[in-house]
Amino acid sequence: MLSSQHRASVLPEAALRGVGGVGKTQLAIEFAYRYADRYQLIWWMTAEDLSAVRTSLAALGERLGLPASTSLEQTVRTVLDALSTSSLSWLLVYDNADAPHELAALMPSSNLVGERGHVLVTSRNTAWSASALTLDVDVFTRAESMELLRKRRPTISDDDARRLAAELGDLPLALEQAASWLLTMLSSVDEYLVDLKQHARELLGEGQPRQYRGTVLTVVSMALAALREQNPAAAQLIQLLAFLSPEPVPMRLLWEGRRAEVSEPLRTSLQERNDIARAIRQLASLGLAKADNAGRHVQVHRLVQAVIREGLAEQGDDSALADVRRLLAAANPGFPDDRSTWPRHADIAPHVRSAGLIHGDIDARRTAMDQLRYIDNLGDFEGCRDFAEEILAAWDRPGPDGEPSGDPLTLLALRRYADALRLLADPRAAQFGLAALERMRASLGEEHEYTLGAANSVGADLRRTGDFAAAAELDRGNLDAHRRVLGDGHPSTLRVMNSMAIDLRLTGDFEGAYQLNLEVERHAGAALEDGTYPLVLAEEAQARDLYLLGRYADALELLDRSLPVQRSLLGAEHLTVLRATCIHIACLRKTGRLDAAVAEGAANHRTVTRRFGADHVLAAEAGMTCANAMRAAGDASQAYALASQGHATFRNVFGERHPVTLCAAVNLGVILRARNFDREARALGEATLQGMREALPDTHPYLLSARSAQAINLVRSHRLAEAQKLSAAILEDSRRLRGPEHPYTLYCAVNAAVDLIEVGDEARGRELLDGAAAGLAALFGPDHPEVDAARGQRRIECDIETVGLT
Question: Which of 66, 85, 522, 752 could form an SS bridge with 731, CB 3.0 to 4.6 Å?
């Protein structure tokens, strides 16, 4: 039914739907087996946990040879996109999926599946009927049940098989478990049926079995009774496993948690690897678990878990839940900022929610918080946001006096939530970040480590609102506190120094920012291993400062050395790497490598858009960087599309008068002039210049760029005398503020010289133009586009790179 010769009934998207235990998975396996020759790639994923699907798709990316990424969301998108262009014929199987809308983002879009690509889903959710070709899978027929029992126990009689199948309601998993029980315990069918009746009050009360739960309850109860007599530690182990994820559990996780204060005799068994392995083998022999000895994993079916959990709840026994939380806390390596701990954090990650760590004791809650930070470090900002919301819903409740919680972990979770929102460009970040800081100050004190970290986050929010002075004041005091409390070389101190450098950059002190970032590098190099995050962050910041200082070749050389390290350490799609790539593109453009700048700019913009979405601030930054390169290369039309989109994003996120919006407007005006839309460029330029004067100090170099744009607008309005007077003043100010050798000062000299010539002062104009052209040739070489512009007596635009202005 899943495949025929007619295109209308060949998968491209099909679902096997039915209640748990009816054999949906087995049917999907059979389909994959029978039609294996149609596919070059078959990829199986357990889909009830979306994080497991993401992890499995990431593993598929490795199989396909795709570049690795620390951002799980980007890896997933890359894999799904790659399938659309792959020459392979492929089948993706999503086993045990839940609601279609939850899985939609992790599946190929409908236009990607067809002759080469097929999707098969198994689910208990009836909603799949509306979104895919659905085959309802029912329980076995009696003949199928009897056939299965004969295969498992060839000596069983037809009568016994028939009676047993009837009592089990022909449910495939229940039949499998019953057959396993008969083989392991060497019981007769009559003995089994007697025990079944003694443990099947709920089932027998309803008559003919209609749901999987009753049958599994019976079988599991019988197995547990036997386990308690034969191996009490194994009985406790299956109860503990019932509160872990239904995904395969690494046996090393049990070993890492062996020091936990769990119940005896399980605690003693966990001290010996052989005892753990023996207990797992016994669980597998009774059909309660699957043991993968080669992969060193154990897995318990979700329905078995549910029966065990329900049984313990009915008894009021919460010892197993307490044990699993203690075990995970004992297995927690801590230090999630240390990449060497990530494999052990990855072992714990699938079980955080199933074990309800956020509802446990202080050690369980610390483990949950380490997981939150681990998720953030992976670059899964969406996952970090979602988990932080769960934590806050459980923890952040007023005390008996009605006052907000002052619990340190709760406040740290609030700060992490704000950080995730900020990285996702969510405007609520500032609200939650400030709330975290104020509550930390009240409960923990000004110099608590959590308070100091939250203050750094609030500084970032102030910069995003355009209040650079307030951000600088906060960061300056925070840096003093960090140095006093944590010391110069502490990673948190280095992060605040980086923030202070951003403050200096935003107020126009590019040299001061560069010197501070050099200091960060000295401390980072002394305190940390080469290639660690604070060090590469300092190098990325230095490159940005060098660019602003007009040292484009130096910045390009630094990034050529640093970017490969960043990509190796953080992944090619990490936010920091993508922003550093923007500066690399700008440096390529400024050093005259226009074709390379356009190609890298377009690729970077595509990557950013896929990872964060078209409306994210970083997408606007990458788009503006690419637009500047396209305009310089002569493609003003495409440049305008990207620049106007970026400008709109900045305006929507930050407002019309924010400096980053105004800088984007300067670039948009440059492109409008390149397209000969002089009237529009003039109107935009006048508004932008007024906004710049209100938002920035008079000495800020970005204001000079806006004034340069205004002078060119005056020229194109045939107001040459006004333009000449303004360009002369701009040149004087640029020499004072940027320095006489800065490329933009030389651009201003070219413009002032051309204006002099056009108002009739040929001698002074020629002298100034020749000097500027010689200066540019000394900086860039004789074949640089700007040198050519100077020699051709063409004015040069002073655009602005918007990356990193927030």
Answer: 752
Q: What are phi and psi of 573, to 5 degrees?
A: -105, 10
Peptide bond preceding 265: is omega within 30 degrees of 0, i.e. cis? yes
Residue 345 lies in a domain: no
Which of 234, 21, 38, 4 lies closest to 133 in space, CA to CA?
Answer: 4
As a whole number of angstroms, the distance between CA 66 and CA 60 comes to 9
Last residue of a domain, one of 74, 106, 136: 136
* Contacts by residues 101-107 (CB-CB < 8 Å, ≥ 24 positions apart): 101/127, 102/50, 103/47, 103/50, 103/53, 106/50, 106/53, 106/54, 106/57, 106/76, 106/80, 107/80
Q: How far apart are the first and last CA of the chain?
A: 57
Closest CA to 608 of 599, 616, 598: 616
| Residues forming a β-bridge with 338 | none
Compute the distance between CA of residue 52 and CA of residue 246 in angstroms, rounded to an integer.
Answer: 11
Backbone angles phi, psi at 242, to 5 degrees: -65, -20
Q: What is the reported pTM? A: 0.71
Q: What is the DSSP string of 697-726?
A: -TT-HHHHHHHHHHHHHHHHTT-HHHHHHH
Measure CA 188 to chain center.
55
H helical segments located in 445-593: 449-464, 468-485, 491-506, 510-527, 533-548, 552-570, 575-590
Whether 253 is in a domain gets the answer yes
459 in a domain, yes or no? Answer: no
User: Quick one: how far is CA 545 from the chain centroid?
Assistant: 28
Q: Are residues 53 and 164 in the same domain?
A: no
Over the stretch 379-424, which tens digit does the pLDDT of each residue have? 788 899 999 999 999 999 988 888 899 999 999 999 999 999 998 8
Q: What is the mean pLDDT of residues 438-442?
A: 96
Q: Which residue has the tokens 């990509």?
A: 567
Length of the chain: 806
Please check whether residues 132 and 211 belong to one and the same domain: no
Cβ distance 421 to 430 under 8 Å? Answer: no
HSE on the CB side for 93, CA within 13 Å? Answer: 21
Q: Kindly state the DSSP code that residue 248 receives in the 8-state scheme.
A: P
Averaged confidence pLDDT in the chain = 87
What are the tens digits of pLDDT across the range 658-699?
A: 999 999 999 999 999 999 999 999 999 999 999 999 988 888
User: Do 177 and 257 have their domain in common?
Assistant: yes
How far apart are alpha carbons 83 and 69 in whole angstroms? 17
Tell me, yes or no, whether 483 lies in a domain: no
Query: Quick check: helix, strand or coil at residue 271?
Result: coil
Q: Are residues 131 and 246 in the same domain?
A: no
As a whole number of angstroms, the distance between CA 182 and CA 173 comes to 14
Range of the domain at 762: 680-791
Distances in whole angstroms, Cα of residue 369 to Cα of each of 390, 415, 754: 12, 11, 62
For the chain, the domain total comes to 3
Question: Domain check: are 314 and 191 in the same one?
Answer: yes
**Amino acid letter, 632:** A
